[in-house]
Amino acid sequence: MDLSEQEVAALLHSATHGNDIPLQTALQHFGDIACLLNASEQDWCACHALSQTWQLTFKAVIARIETGRLQEHERRVVGSLRDLGVDVLLPSSASYPALLHHIPDPPALLYRRGSWCDLNTPQVAMVGARRASIQAQKLAHTCARELAACGLVITSGMAVGIDACSHAGALESGHTIAVLGSGIDQLYPARNRRLARQILKQGCLVSDHPIATNPTKYTFPKRNRLVSGLSRMVIVVEAARRSGSLVTARHALEQNKELMVYPWSAAHNQGLGCLDLLADGAGLIRDVADVWLALAQTDLAIELKSGSVINSDSTPDLSTECQRLLQLLGDAPVSSWELSRQLKQPIARVQEHLLELELARRIAVSGTGYVRL
Fold it and tell me: Pick from 144, 145, 104, 150: which is nearest to 125 by CA?
């Protein structure tokens, strides 16, 4: 059986049973899969950071690959990769998400499946309670739909509740990425399999677990760091004090990501985790306009409505709405609320156009309003 380097990497990863460190150590020492395959006994002996046990494990896999005598479970791994059209992304690959290079524990391999290939497109993560309130479900769906309509990719974990509502909202107007707490071939939970099929057509599934890994209570926390790691901002829609969403929020803070939450009543137990995050300094979301305001303060350089990165050396063609906004701006700061009143447009829509103009370097924030550059 002729194998690609990506398939070899997947077989080596499978041999670790989800322990990324041995494969990361081997790749760092040898440089790439080709060098690892061609390593001599002397080269292996020089790999002092890798224990002898793991060296023997990897060398046994490579020997089976070279002789074509793969074990049955290894043949199933290769078969799943090919049958499902799974891409295996190595850290050295240009397709590997650039943001993951900057988190404390980047995955040794990333598995991607679906129609959406660009994992470097700016993403916003949305997470929250599995037993979400009706109000929270509506907030997640609406927010995801409006953000996706303006070119952002919505990333979540495909759990029931807020995750599923976020994916569904994004699918109505744009793209979404689901990060799995299992192998890329295991669609969990079963009730979201229809949603997963929709995501495959209009987004993609991502996992850093080896093929055939079943979901367990240990695989989901590992998944959560990728949800935040892939994203520029993490939004917690609704979370109790012992919610798994708070794990994602903690990863966001450790990864220096923007963290925003919806405020809930102190009598709403399902939202107390959000109130705690607010008390600790997370950003407040009253409506989608607050998300745009927070994004405007970051170096997020996307061109709204198309989702493509703006070239800072050029000025994109401005829409009629943006041109009207520019005509209302001058040297004196004008607030978004005043612009909304003058244009007779919803504040959220005005904020979208203001962010577009700011990213195009046509306006700037000054005091309590915006000025024309």
Answer: 144
Contact of 149 with 258, CB cutoff 8 Å: no
- pLDDT band of residue 344 (cuts 50, 70, 90) is confident
Least confident of 57-61, 127-131, 196-200, 352-356: 352-356
The reply to whether the predicted model has a pTM over 0.90 is no
Is there a contact between 351 and 293 (Cβ–Cβ < 8 Å)? yes
Classify 310-372 by CATH class: mainly alpha
The pair of structure tokens assigned to 217 is 């209570």
User: What residue ranges do the domains of the chain occupy?
Assistant: 5-84, 114-296, 310-372
Q: Which of 145, 109, 110 is nearest to 126 (CA)?
A: 145
Please state, in angstroms and rounded to a whole number, the distance separating the CA atoms of residues 218 and 221: 6
In contact, 151 and 129? CB cutoff 8 Å: no
Q: Which CATH number fits domain 114-296: 3.40.50.450, 3.40.50.880, 3.30.450.40, 3.50.50.60?
A: 3.40.50.450
